[in-house]
């Protein structure tokens, strides 16, 4: 119960914290010590809050780990691509995936997809959504049952790759 209350308080504070803009090396943040194959694009840097953007990646990579990590040959990938002429960061896994008809539930607090039985409070993706929106961006997912999931997010900031 204490962890849930702390999680809710952290979620609530996201609306009020002053956004700082610094260079955040997202490639470095995306490399946790995990027992899966990680494919991390090198040198992906964005302008954003150095305390909040790691929370975004931690939630996405944590979810990928929860859903794909127990599979043989699990792969989690972080990178940046172009969507609609703008850079979009992504975290992709080869986990079980989900039916996109249920995608509207993903970023709402305490919502879980039917049939999921993983650890957590149901607040992580809502936290991601709030942080990304505070940075002027958007977040979405693409998935299919048995095909894995890719989460994307944009930031209304300059994005570049380090040499």
Account of the protein in words:
By secondary structure, the chain is α+β, with helices and mostly antiparallel strands. Helix content is 26%, strand content 26%. It has helices at 2-13, 26-29, 53-68, 124-134; strands spanning 22-25, 37-40, 44-48, 75-83, 86-93, 139-143, 149-153, 159-161. The chain has a five-stranded mixed beta sheet. The longest helix is centred in the middle third of the chain and has 16 residues, at 53-68. 33% of the residues are buried.
Strand arrangement within the widest β-sheet reads: 2-4-5-7-6
Structural class: alpha+beta
* Overall 3D shape: globular
Rounded to an integer in angstroms, the radius of gyration calculated over CA atoms is 15 Å
> Helical proportion?
25-40%
Number of strands: 8
Major sheet? 5 strands, mixed
- List low-pLDDT spans: 158-163
Helix/strand order: HEHEEHEEHEEE
pLDDT average, as an integer? 83
Task: Give the number of helices.
Answer: 4
Portion in beta strands? 25-35%
| CA distance, first residue to last residue | 46 Å
List the helices and strands and how they pair.
Elements lengths: L1 H12 L8 E4 H4 L7 E4 L3 E5 L4 H16 L6 E9 L2 E8 L30 H11 L4 E5 L5 E5 L5 E3 L2
Parallel strand pairs: 2-4
Antiparallel strand pairs: 1-3, 3-8, 4-5, 5-7, 6-7
Helix pairs in contact: 3-4
């Amino acid at each position: 119960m204490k962890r849930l209350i702390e999680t809710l308080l952290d979620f609530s504070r996201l609306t009020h914290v002053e956004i700082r803009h610094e260079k955040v090396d997202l490639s470095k943040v995306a490399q946790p010590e995990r027992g899966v194959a990680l494919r991390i694009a090198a040198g992906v840097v964005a302008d954003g809050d150095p305390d909040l953007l790691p929370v975004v990646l931690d939630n996405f990579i944590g979810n990928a780990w929860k859903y794909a990590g127990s599979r043989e040959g699990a792969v989690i990938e972080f990178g940046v691509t172009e969507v609609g002429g703008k850079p979009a960061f992504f975290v992709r896994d080869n986990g079980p995936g989900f039916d996109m008809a249920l995608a509207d539930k993903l970023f709402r607090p305490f919502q879980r997809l039917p049939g999921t039985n993983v650890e957590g409070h149901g607040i992580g993706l809502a936290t991601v959504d709030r942080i990304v929106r505070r940075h002027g961006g958007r977040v979405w997912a693409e998935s299919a049952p048995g095909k894995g999931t890719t989460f994307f997010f944009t930031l209304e900031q300059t994005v570049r790759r380090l040499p």
